[in-house]
Design a protein that fits this description.
- By secondary structure, the protein is mainly α.
- It has one domain.
- It is built from 11 helices and no strands.
- Helix 7 crosses helix 8.
- The longest helix is centred in the middle third of the chain and has 53 residues.
- It starts with a helix and ends with a helix.
Length: 304
């Protein structure tokens, strides 16, 4: 049943682009902020404990609904719930749309729009140098694909809709902690910094296995030799956390799998568009491979 829900959910994720704004879940920011404020009452505890407790509380409603449904009506209510939970767990933004907006900004040569669309993909500051920004965006697409798609699919396969939702909840907590920390004053900086570090660590643990499976997938879906060489290449700077190590690996292997070469008479704008679209195509090829494997497992489950 989970595999069927996963196939339907992936199809909806590819087709129902007009519904993506529902996945931003802005209303959860208030709940997460309430959890952060409550964590200050136990500031003497390790910051990871209130972060885990907050994630459990946000995931608890989904668990209760799953347990209450059981196998009623031949499992169709559970199937519907799994599809809905998967839809809201993916994303929240679509990589393809972000890449298209970035490429359109490059072609229109609008510096402010280029910076905004690149920042949306990188989820952080982008280099001022045009070539550095191009490479940064290509790597970011490979990293974000794991966070928005493949890690969610992995946890859905492993634990059903609850697993996918738990992963998304940890990502929402991490994003909110990063946002709050960036706007914190001097008095709140220390506490919010602890929460940011703890939420990033928790999310990094959940992303560790999917990140390596995704990196392997990039090698299969792209240029295998260059991707393998990139995997074996040691990082320039030792990563400071599990999350950073996973992102650095995804970026390195993903860019290696693209195996892009500079073309003669190609402008910087053309190079940027070609690189971003190539990264998006690599993600789509890997998603297709995963969908085929999931479909094969579903058919095998029906035949036995």
């Amino acid at each position: 049943m989970n595999l069927i829900a996963l196939l339907i959910g992936i199809a909806i994720e590819r087709l129902a682009t007009q519904l993506f704004h529902w996945r931003r879940l802005r209303w959860m920011d208030r709940l997460i902020d309430m959890g952060f404020r409550a964590s200050r009452r136990v500031s003497d505890w390790p910051a990871l404990l209130p972060i885990v407790a907050l994630a459990v509380l946000l995931a608890l409603p989904v668990l209760i609904v799953i347990l209450s449904l059981g196998d009623t009506l031949l499992g169709f209510p559970y199937l519907a719930l799994a599809i809905v939970v998967l839809f809201f767990s993916l994303g929240p933004k679509d990589i393809g749309e972000d890449v298209n907006e970035y490429c359109e900004a490059l072609e229109a040569e609008e510096p402010e729009r280029i910076r905004e669309t690149a920042t949306a993909l990188v989820e952080g500051d982008v280099p001022a140098d045009r070539l550095e920004r191009i490479h940064c965006v290509e790597a970011a697409v490979c990293v974000q694909a794991n966070n928005r798609l493949f890690a969610v699919i992995f946890w859905f396969i492993l634990m059903g809709p609850l697993g996918a939702w738990v992963y998304r909840v940890t990502d929402l907590i991490r994003r909110r902690a990063v946002f709050n920390d960036s706007r914190a004053g001097e008095e709140e900086a220390a506490e919010l910094g602890r929460l940011r570090e703890a939420s990033t660590r928790l999310h990094g643990w959940l992303a560790w296995i999917p990140a390596r499976l995704t990196a392997i997938g990039y090698a299969v879906a792209g240029h295998f030799d260059d991707a393998l060489a990139a995997w074996r290449e040691p990082p320039d700077d030792p990563p400071e956390s599990t999350s950073e190590a996973s992102e650095e690996l995804l970026a390195r292997v993903g860019v290696g799998a693209l195996s892009l070469r500079d073309l003669e008479d190609e402008t910087v704008t053309e190079r940027g568009v070609r690189g971003a679209r190539a990264a998006n195509k690599l993600v789509f090829r890997l998603l297709t491979i995963w969908a085929v494997v999931i479909a094969a497992l579903t058919l095998y489950g029906w035949s036995v």
